[in-house]
Design a protein that fits this description.
The complex is a heterodimer of chains A (232) and B (308). Chain A is of the alpha/beta class. Chain A is built from 9 helices and 10 strands. Chain A is 35% helix and 28% strand. In chain A, a hairpin with a 2-residue loop joins strand 1 and strand 2. Chain B has one domain: ABC transporter involved in vitamin B12 uptake, BtuC, CATH 1.10.3470. The structure holds adenosine-5'-triphosphate and magnesium ion.
Chain lengths: 232, 308
């Protein structure tokens, strides 16, 4: 199903961060959000999750208006969130973190098996507390937790931040698998070569305003937009 | 009486106090740990439990055990229900703001207390224990005739006091299993760790908060049901358990369940022993001094984590 942001404005308390932003993430497609630090990428994902009150605009999944629901209903519609900095339940075990993911949409042992098969390292560490995992393992767990929803939409906020190459390619593979399964994916990513490899389309954000949305081909041929919005 | 038996009596008294205190403080600790709300009205839920227990026990005819069992079911439900109402009507509306909730729960304290005075009255009233046989305890000495077992006069306890200690232990273990093994327990712990991520994974945080506030009050009420056959129900009886619970929660470490229970046993026992040998006032002075020392030298409590 297509996720649509329809002219949303949002912020923290009285401080407005997003201004009339419109985006569309289609099934089986990776939409990358690009913008400088503080442009409002994380804020956009939080607004989708209903974690921030909208000042105006709507967030729609198919015909369902997510922005009209209480925030805890949003994941039940199949939005999986992998937040910046992972935000695991640090004092819970790996198994319990996964259990929380499963509870969100009432998924059971079958989904759990599927997810653990994707991340065998987690299976070996089920009774370990999340905070004792290595950075890469924590990112795996954050990803696994979101996949436990069997999401139709996946939001990834800088999933490769601070990871070594082998871990990065694992995350990339996961994104590919999800795309091929028809999931609509919004990916916030700072590494340009990762963006060029993974994205189908790229949306630029500048100071909370939506700018050009282009096919990734355009960026491969011409780096001018990158220069303009992220300075490289 | 000799020192040995005297000490054991003091320990038994202390253990009864510790048992009830552990339950009460657990409620306070749970509410603070998960909701970050300092519930100043906690003692009033204790009092509410006691007077509802009196009311239920006296309105049920027949064996006192019937009334007691009914009270043990009804009193926590009533106190929990009132707490859930307070959460929905007051705490939720101030968005669980830490400072606002302190003032709000002070308000709740006075409302419950004055309502109790208006309806239940200023009298202290006892509840009949479900069973209460005296047990004489044996002691020994090495006299002229060698090793000898005898029963010193006044050295004994009651079956009910032993029951209070056992019941509290069972409830504590049960509650720990509930928190660590059940699905609702998992949801509560996830909410405690990261409220925003809990929401992002479908947990209805405000409903969890209502449940936690209700559970905290129900634990206090249950503690009161256990103690009210030994003490009496009175509309001002909430002050002491509130103070002691705060002492326990601070010493144990805010939000740490294990610390709360260890500290409750520590404070309950020493309170009992010092009260018997010296005076209850001295016991309170020492406990308060201990809090001051903990706050100065280990502000996170014995079992709390250092804030990052
Ligand atoms: N909790 C908050 N309270 C107030 N302002 C905030 C809060 N979180 C973010 N902001 C502000 O909102 C703006 C956008 O922040 P956001 O985190 O969305 O940026 P970002 O594009 O994700 O940046 P980065 O690339 O550094 O992750 C920033 O100016 C930031 O200071
Ligand atoms: Mg960000």
């Amino acid at each position: 199903m297509t996720l649509r942001l329809d002219g949303i404005s949002a912020g923290y308390g009285p401080v407005q961060v997003l201004f009339d932003l419109s985006l569309e993430a289609r099934p089986g497609e990776v939409l990358c959000l690009l913008g400088r630090n503080g442009a409002g990428k994380t804020t956009t994902l939080k607004a989708i999750m209903g974690l921030l009150p909208l000042m105006s605009g709507r967030v729609l999944l198919g015909a369902a208006e997510l922005s009209a629901m209480p925030a805890h209903e949003v994941p039940k519609h199949g939005i999986g969130y992998i937040p910046q900095g992972r935000r695991l339940f640090t004092e819970l075990t790996v198994a319990e973190n996964i259990e929380v993911g499963l509870l969100a949409r009432g998924r059971g042992a079958e989904t759990r098996e599927k997810v653990l098969t994707m991340f065998p390292r987690l299976r070996e560490r089920l009774s370990q507390r999340a905070e004792t995992l290595s950075g890469g393992e924590q990112q795996m767990l954050a990803t696994a937790r979101a996949l436990c929803l069997e999401p139709e939409v996946l939001l990834l906020d800088e999933p490769t931040e601070g990871l070594q190459p082998s871990m990065i390619s694992l995350i990339r593979d996961t994104v590919d698998v999800m795309r091929d399964a028809g999931v609509a994916i919004i990916l916030v990513e700072q590494r340009i070569e990762a963006v060029l490899n993974l994205a189908d389309r790229v949306a630029f954000i500048e100071n909370g305003h939506g700018r050009e949305v282009v096919d990734v081909e355009v960026l491969r041929r011409d780096k001018a937009l990158l220069q303009k919005y992220v300075g490289i | 009486m000799e020192f040995g038996p005297h000490l054991i009596l003091a320990i038994l008294e202390g253990a009864v106090g510790a048992a009830v205190l552990a339950l009460t403080a657990l409620g306070l600790s749970l509410v603070f740990g998960i909701m970050r709300v300092v519930n100043v009205a906690h003692g009033e839920f204790f009092m509410l439990g006691a007077i509802v227990a009196w009311w239920v026990a006296t309105s049920i005819a027949g064996h006192p055990a019937l009334g007691f069992v009914a009270a043990a079911v009804v009193a926590p439900l009533v106190a929990g229900g009132v707490a859930v109402l307070g959460d929905r009507l007051v705490l939720k509306r101030v968005h669980y703001d830490p400072e606002a909730t302190i003032v709000a729960t002070i308000g709740i304290l006075y409302i419950i207390q004055q309502l109790a005075l208006m309806t239940y009255g200023p009298e202290a009233r006892p509840v009949e224990p479900p069973f209460n046989s005296r047990i004489a305890l044996p002691w020994f000495e090495f006299g002229e005739t060698g090793f000898e077992i005898y029963y010193p006069w006044g050295f004994g306890t009651t079956t009910y006091k032993l029951f209070v200690i056992g019941a509290a232990a069972v409830i504590l273990v049960g509650f720990w299993l509930f928190l660590s093994r059940s699905r609702i327990g998992l949801v509560m712990r996830a909410t405690q760790l990261d409220r925003e991520m809990a929401t992002a994974f479908g947990i209805p945080v405000s409903r969890v908060y209502s449940l936690v506030f209700g559970l905290g009050a129900a634990l206090a009420a249950l503690a009161a049901v256990l103690i009210v056959p030994i003490q009496q129900a009175h509309y001002l009886m909430g002050g002491d358990p509130l103070l002691l619970s705060f002492i326990v929660v601070i010493i144990g470490g805010l939000g740490s369940i294990r610390g709360t229970i260890v500290a409750a046993v520590l404070i309950g026992l020493s309170d009992g022993i010092i009260s018997v040998f010296f005076s209850p006032t001295l016991a309170k002075i020492i406990a308060t001094l201990l809090v001051a020392l903990v706050l100065v030298f280990r502000p996170q409590g014995l079992f709390g984590k250092k804030p990052a």
